[in-house]
Amino acid sequence: MKKRFLWAAMILIIGIGIYNLNDRTSFKKVHTLPYDVQKNVDADLRLQQIYRKDYSYIVFHSPGMVEHGMQVEGSTVKMLLNVSEEKAEHEIQQYSYKLKTSEEHDTIAVFLDGQLIPFDNVVVGN
Description:
The chain contains two helices and nine strands, in the order αβαββββββββ. By secondary structure, it is of the alpha+beta class. The chain has a five-stranded mixed beta sheet, with no helix packed on it. A hairpin with a 2-residue loop joins strand 7 (about 105-110) and strand 8 (about 115). It is elongated, with a radius of gyration of 19 Å. About 10% of the residues are buried.
């Protein structure tokens, strides 16, 4: 009887852990945007957010190579972008990211080389 209880408790704990992993905040580079997202991108704007139901695409245009990171502080998700002096292959390169946030995160802040920058455009879609 104790073994069954222990197995049931273990399965419950693993199930809760898997659920929490799926609800986590994530920020990853995307090499190709879906067509319905790419058609909303304005190549003349530096920083854009294309919002979807459960996630956003963040599009950043830069002449230099970009490294990215993320920090979560309370209800704020901080996206950290650092541009190197090294130039990209083309004059201006598009860097695209997929950002998934949890319900408790109500603020998205983008920092470029340590400086807070605003979105030039935010598109809300399906």
